[in-house]
Amino acid sequence: MPTGLEQVSVVVPTIGRPSLDALLDALAGAAGPRPAALVLVDDRPSGPVLEPARAGLPPVRVVRSGGGGPARARNLGWRTARTPWTAFLDDDVVPDPDWYARLAEDLADLPDDVAGSQGRVRVPLPAHRRPTDWERGTAGLATSRWITADLAYRRSALAEVGGFDERFPRAFREDSDLALRVMDTGARLVVGRRRITHPVRPVDRRVSVRVQAGNADDVLMRRLHGPGWRERAAAPVGRRPQHLAVTGAGVAAVGLGLAGRPRAAALAALGWAAGTAEFAWARIAPGPRDPAEVATMALTSVAIPPLAVGHLVRGVVQHRRVTPWRGLPDLVLFDRDGTLVHDVPYNGDPDQVRPVDGARAALDALRARGVRTGLVTNQSGVGRCLLTRDQVDAVNARVEQLLGPFDTVQVCPHAPDDGCRCRKPAPGMVTDACAALGVQPARCVLIGDIAADVGAAEAAGAVGVLVPTPVTLPGEVRAAARRAATLTDAVDDVLAGSW
Predict the structure, then answer these.
(1) Which of 76, 276, 369, 486 is deepest in the core (most CB within 10 A)?
(2) CA dihedral 419, 444, 184, 86 (to 10 degrees)
(3) Structural domain for 287, as ranges
């Protein structure tokens, strides 16, 4: 089926940099039909709400990710968008005037096994002088593989692998990791024809020192994808072997000096000095010769090798044991009576609805992360002629009024002996909720207070979590594979990836 832009949302994570204005101006002024939405994910921990008012933009939604980093911000973006395709742009790029039209062409009629399409990146460098070290590094984006400066993914592909791995705290390697996991499912990524410009961002003189923290992320990549990850991601080793040698020489010089071996210490110090000088010259030679740049290269070339090694060691310690990323579920379903609200047998009176402690906060925590929520409730009182369906709907409406809107509400009105497919522990309501929202049952969690809730989840291929109450039988508690002491604990575990 052809893909029109009405099936695409554009997601831009941002920390409010001035470059965002240039991006929004370009999107507002570009020719062609607009995507379904533009989702701006403000990843600042605090501050005023962004107000991207511009004529010509697609419908804009601003959400906040609370300073969780670019991986979490992008996850919130695609979960909020909910269109079949999500096109990611960084907040420091400028799309070409025909970017919308080219995006539509790039996504049109793609085979089902294509999960993503990357745009082409140009990095303008100064024409009147040689580029600085930072400018040369930024220019490498033009040939980088699978970077989310401009990369569109199918929502289904993102959901299948749990989106971006939020253990990558920086804008570094999180996009390569995602691409490798998507391709591990058998899907393909392709390069389209649309183009963006990636200007070189102004930075201070310490930027090359700060980016050494990415060495720890390289350790995580190796743990997750094995020793061949660099070849698959087209990520060169760089100067890590030289940094190890130079740092080793420096450490040896200090150690030998303290051990009273001055000649050996001098030789080690000479090796350190030679290695440091070679590194500095390798950075100075292709760049401009102005005193500020030369001084910056000389000073940072002393600091970078030990910092790179230090972050490498930190990564080895921090990531000594890792598990595959699962991410958040796409949908969390809740039993109603006894789980979200206090159980009133055969309740048909909205005035008797009383939420359990922490219910609203737990639901809001899921919504804030872009996780969809739903209600699945057995209401045999209808089948027993003790309630009407209108009464059940009125009670559900009161639950939503107190706890916020659900993305799906599923009700079984049948009596226990009716033999229906929907009454828990049958899977019907769970499978119907997933089908209504386009969610794979394996990416769904059901939280309830009795074995029937857990059984319905498991029968549907979803994950069941038991939150015991006084009506929960001891045998049900013992049999539950996953349980939590409270509703809040259950949701906290889901948000922590323990589901």
Answers:
(1) 76
(2) 120
(3) 204-325
- The answer to whether the beta carbons of residues 430 and 446 sit under 8 Å apart is yes
In this structure, are 21 and 147 located in the same domain? yes
Q: For 166-219, how does the pLDDT look when each residue is reduced to its tens digit (9 = 90+)?
A: 999 999 999 999 999 999 999 999 999 999 999 999 999 999 999 999 999 999
Closest residue by Cα to residue 420 from 380, 371, 474: 380
Q: Say if CB 192 and CB 102 are below 8 A apart.
A: yes
| Same-domain check for residues 302 and 382 | no
Q: How would you label 249-259 residue by residue, b for 16+ Cβ within 10 Å and e otherwise? A: bbebbeebeee
Q: Hey, which residues are catalytic here?
A: 335, 337
How far is Cα 50 from Cα 465, in angstroms, rounded to an integer? 38
**Beta-carbon count within 10 A of 182 CB:** 21
Same domain flag for 50 and 167: yes
Asked if 188 and 221 sit in the same domain, the reply is no
What angle separates helix 291-318 from helix 214-225, to the nearest 10 degrees? 40
Same-domain check for residues 145 and 285: no
Strand partners, 39: 11, 61
Domain total for the chain? 3
Q: Which amino acid is at 494?
A: V
Looking at residue 1, its pLDDT comes to 47
